[in-house]
């Protein structure tokens, strides 16, 4: 069973048990952290098949314990390289089915393709949900300028806050009385929002067209805040970033960055580009479909810094860059300035 762009969140059985497998790199567990932080009411606990796996801070539960506490499904809450479901996870997945939980995945690998899993689901009367399935009939992009306003989050790397920034900005817009929709472009965002298009599962020729479909014509004062993917300078994932940029035609973009990150995720031979490089490249490429594109500021992931060090760094960089720099999780006055810059208001 697949979740398409027209499904809503109630169709995914919850609450969830979050399966983190044996992933030790926090960047590859972004689905777990995203659901914990933005859908906490749906998360009962976590389950790992390796004691060294990443932890979310949720209660560590077996599938049987989670089911006893009311869980309805186990979510494969990681996004490893290639989106694969390795064979050694199979026993844990079958354990969850046997405990009475449905399975939800946002991987490139399909649950139904895991040997024996479909049969186990049938035997136990459970369901398999694959979220990372694009809707049928996606068009090739036209490049036509659409009505409404759009904001896209872009990044110096993967897994450093593009989704969090988009969600935080959408919430802030709504709090100001602005008509706004968060547009999910990845599996975690889709699980949070209940709809969207998994951009990294689209055939390349239809990538920009999918982005056009994700943010259709809207009222002149309506904003679509679009979750970014990858990075324009990542050697593996730049293609999805460019298709999303061209198709979303953003009026405004916000550059997401993690200070102190030295190497691109998954490719340690490549250093992280500067925020200035991403601004210049995004404007140069984004002008192709929206000549009026502008950078509104920067969203920093300062989780590794204490509050004083984070504030000092962001203040210095805001002065140097001439635009607001804020951490969307810490919020505060700097974030208010970023929101105002996005909206183009004093």
Architecture overview:
Residues 140-333 form the D-glutamate N-acetyltransferase-like C-terminal domain. This is DUF1611 domain-containing protein. It is a single chain. The chain has 346 residues and is of the alpha/beta class. It folds into two domains: 9-130, 3-Layer(aba) Sandwich (Rossmann fold), CATH 3.40.50; 149-343, Rossmann fold. It is built from eleven helices and 13 strands. Helix 1 (30-38) runs parallel beside helix 6 (187-193). It is globular and about 60 Å long.
Short description:
The chain is α/β, with parallel strands linked by helices and 346 residues long. Helices cover 32% and strands 17% of the residues.
Proportion of residues in β-strands: 15-25%
Q: Distance between the terminal alpha carbons, to the nearest Å?
A: 48 Å
User: What is the molecular shape?
Assistant: globular
Name the CATH class of the largest domain.
Alpha Beta
CATH topology of the largest domain: Rossmann fold
Number of domains: 2
Q: Largest beta sheet, briefly?
A: 6 strands, parallel
CATH architecture of the largest domain: 3-Layer(aba) Sandwich
Residues in helices, as a percent range: 25-40%
Arithmetic mean of pLDDT = 93
Number of distinct helices: 11
Order of helices and strands: EHEHEHEHEEHEHHEHEEEHEHEH
Poorly predicted segments: 1-10
Radius of gyration (Å)? 20 Å
| DSSP summary, beta strand count | 13
Q: Would you tell me the structural class of the helices and strands?
A: alpha/beta
* CATH homologous superfamily designation of the largest domain: P-loop containing nucleotide triphosphate hydrolases
Task: Write out the strand line-up for the largest beta sheet, numbering strands in chain order.
Answer: 7-8-6-9-12-13
